[in-house]
Design a protein that fits this description.
It comes from Liquidambar formosana (Formosan gum). This protein is 34% helix and 26% strand. The chain is of the alpha/beta class.
């Protein structure tokens, strides 16, 4: 099997991979996306997108596909399971683009992104086997070998292959850290309608936290997060067992309204997973790129879901990476290995501290909300939910725009970098 040459190869057809391919397409650069699965990866059922994500989707030209389907959620209620007290909080105030917080189906987001790419841009059943580099034009190019024997030579290689990234491991980034917590996620189905308001609901107890958010008038996304000491490490991939454990063990003391949502779950949507992250200092000081090879999304900055920023940050990555590569492409009338290596270095500098702060904020948010001591509960209810929650969950970070290819001029420079 001979060697095939590509401008850019992206490993992984998740949120980061597809969004990065779109960003590159917008600036005139073709990318080939390699996906080891037989289709788009939809584990996780749904995700929340905050204003910063919608600004990124605006830059990619995709946001209108989703905002016409999903209604914004502007407030939520937090119930203390032990005391029964309820706090109302504000979330998702509108951003400059007019889009506040919305919870969307993961599949819908992935399909909206995939529709923007040519049919031959995604190659399924393509599992990465090894990576090598080859000197060229004062820099290097990547030689990618797949398990089916195919060999691809690429001027740029971007690993968007998730928390267990092969590309991140090749770069030498540190192994993941187990947060000591796990999460169950699922979709509840109500064919006749669930009758809930368009509000987020959260339930907190010592060492446990759960929540639900309506997606449509017939579907509700729900989650449950627990500490590993609760028996999470014994869970299997059996969806019926997962549902039963949540109802009879983990959420036994939770309100009947929450357990009714769990009972209506589509079993095919249920998943259990440990919550992993990378130490923020490993992102700040670690090897996030080497020449023309880098990572984006969870491959760079896996974080716990406690700020709901994993997918949002991946979309930001795509725009920032697309802008830096696009500027180099436009200015040099093509992808020159030495110049694009500088562009990738610029992307890494722009993302290190931003994503390290999100990792830190996410971990601390989870730690505070599931703390068990008396002072921690008081801090959570009075300070975190009372004063900090709205500031943390109304995120207006603007990752900027993409350069204009048609005019050959760099328009819409980032407000941040």
């Amino acid at each position: 099997m001979g060697m095939v040459e590509e401008e850019v190869v992206i490993v992984g057809a998740g949120i980061a991979g597809l969004a990065t391919a779109i960003a590159l397409k917008r600036v005139g650069v073709r990318a080939l996306v390699l996906e080891k699965s037989d289709g788009l990866r939809t584990t996780g059922a749904a995700l929340g997108l905050f204003p910063n994500a919608w600004l990124a989707l605006d830059a990619l030209g995709v946001s209108h596909k989703l905002t016409s389907i999903y209604a914004p959620t502007q407030k939520g209620c937090i119930t203390n399971v032990g005391s029964g007290t309820v706090q109302e909080v504000s979330i998702g105030a509108n951003s400059d683009s007019g889009n506040g917080f919305r919870c969307v189906h993961r599949r819908a987001l992935l399909e909206a992104l995939a529709e923007e790419l040519p049919k031959d841009a995604i190659r399924f059943f393509s599992k990465l086997s090894s990576i090598e580099t080859q000197a060229q034009e004062g820099s290097s190019v990547a030689i990618i070998r797949l398990e089916d024997g195919a060999i691809i030579k690429a001027k740029v290689l971007i690993g968007c292959d998730g928390v267990h990234s092969v590309v991140a491991r090749w770069l030498g980034l540190s192994k993941l850290v187990d947060s000591g917590r796990w999460a169950v996620r699922g979709l509840a189905m109500f064919p006749q309608g669930h009758g809930l308001k368009q509000e987020a609901q959260q339930f907190v107890d010592t060492g446990k936290r759960a929540g639900l958010i309506p997606l449509t008038d017939k579907e509700v996304y729900w989650f449950f997060v627990g500490k590993s000491t609760i028996k999470g490490e014994d869970m299997t991939s059996d969806p019926e067992l997962i549902q039963r454990e949540v109802l009879e063990n983990f959420a036994n003391d939770f309100p009947p309204s929450y357990k009714d949502i769990v009972r209506h779950s589509d079993l095919a949507s249920l998943s259990w997973a440990p919550l992993m992250f990378r130490y923020p200092w490993d992102v700040i000081f670690g090897k996030v790129s080497k020449g023309n090879i880098t990572v984006a999304g969870d491959a760079m900055h896996p974080m716990t879901p406690d700020l709901g920023q994993g997918g949002c940050a991946a979309l930001e990555d795509a725009v920032v990476l697309g802008r830096h590569i696009g500027e180099s492409f436009i200015q040099n009338k093509g992808l020159k290995p030495a110049e694009v290596a500088r562009a990738i270095n610029g992307y890494v500098k722009a993302r290190r501290w931003r994503t390290a702060m999100l990792i830190t904020g996410s971990f601390l948010s989870g730690w505070v909300q599931q703390g068990g001591s008396t002072w921690m509960k008081s801090f959570r209810d009075l300070i975190f939910y009372g004063l900090l929650f709205r500031r943390l969950f109304t995120i207006h970070y603007d990752c900027g725009k993409l350069p204009s290819v048609s005019s050959g001029k760099l328009e819409g420079q980032s407000k941040i970098d």
